[in-house]
Amino acid sequence: MIVHDKKILENAGLAQEAHKLSKAGFIPKEQYEAIIENLTLARTNDNLLVRVLFFILGTFLYSSICGFFTLLVIDSIDNSYEFLLFFFAIIGFAGAEALSRSTFYGHGLDDAFILGAQLTLAIAIGVTTNSYELVIASFITLTALLSYLRYLHLSMALLFCFAFATVVVYSVFSLPSFVHSFLPFIMMAFAAPLYFGSKKLKQKLEQSYYYGGLSLAQNFALVLFYFSGNYLVVRELSIELLGQDIAAGSDIPFAYLFYVFTFIVPAGYLYFALVKKDRIILWIGLLSFCFSIYTIRFYYAIMPIEIALTIGGAVLFVTTLFTIRKLKNKETGITFQADRFTETNAFLAAEIVVTSQMGSMKPEVPVDSPMEFGGGDFSGGGSGGSF
């Protein structure tokens, strides 16, 4: 199923782990370089800017090929231009296949052809089915999954997650109207098996190159689960999608449940992240907690924004200071010690700069100069007119 050489993919995983160990100081730089020299690796662009530039170049190449074939057949087609769109999708997949069979992987050109193929396929299906959203999302879900399994691009794993969630939403809308009110609970029920299913597959995973896609699906499920029960999201989408008319002084059904959900889920994420020592879940928990505060303030502005920010900053400062003092001397478990797998040179450099500046700040002491200046009529030390 995978178009790339599996040995090269396994070597890429070994090289990545060796790089982490070298950066953390567990192995010397010479040993890391010796490991890299003995591994056959694919040519890729780790530099994001270079990859983006190659992606732009690939977009121009893909559009040029499609434009060339359009000029060749434009006179022979009548109104059946949707077949031309399907042909553009075929060109995209063929280009992705040709580029992926080389020794390059994730270099930007293949990204352009894969994403372009998915986009043109979605447009072609939309034109053919008169913009039937459920059919479009179903096809993109299938093609995105197959594309990830074959090309191992994380963009396809993310597209699969979004398309799969879209299929669930439009499937609910195709049911009787009384089911639409249960959409938040249905999305929660969809996110839960997506999370636990991805977690179980990661535990049984034999091929390390699928680990990134499963981790992305797992984290996507956490974000989807939170937004499915967030009060602001549920209320506003109930007005926009379900057409509910919420009068002044009234509220959505199960409002108190969504209020509790909005804050208890971020708290659960933070607790789970600290227990499992998972940095990504910690970031998800912190960001979701910030959005929960924004959710409440969106409807209930108790005080002016500047006062709220001042109080929030003071509370955050006190909490951070208390936490640092409690954890700075711990060496196991949850600790404030530097993570060897995290780049800390920036913090060390900042500490050195601050220390050096503080050490160089000394009070000025008046010094009696042996040389006496005199004369002159203006500011400063001038000289007289005689020796």
Automatic annotation (TrEMBL):
* Superkingdom of this protein's organism: Bacteria
Keywords from the named record: Membrane, Transmembrane, Transmembrane helix
Q: Where would you find the membrane-spanning parts of this chain? A: 48-74, 80-100, 156-173, 179-197, 209-234, 254-273, 280-301, 307-324
Q: What is this protein called?
A: DUF2157 domain-containing protein
User: Organism classification, top ranks?
Assistant: Bacteria, Pseudomonadati, Bacteroidota, Flavobacteriia, Flavobacteriales
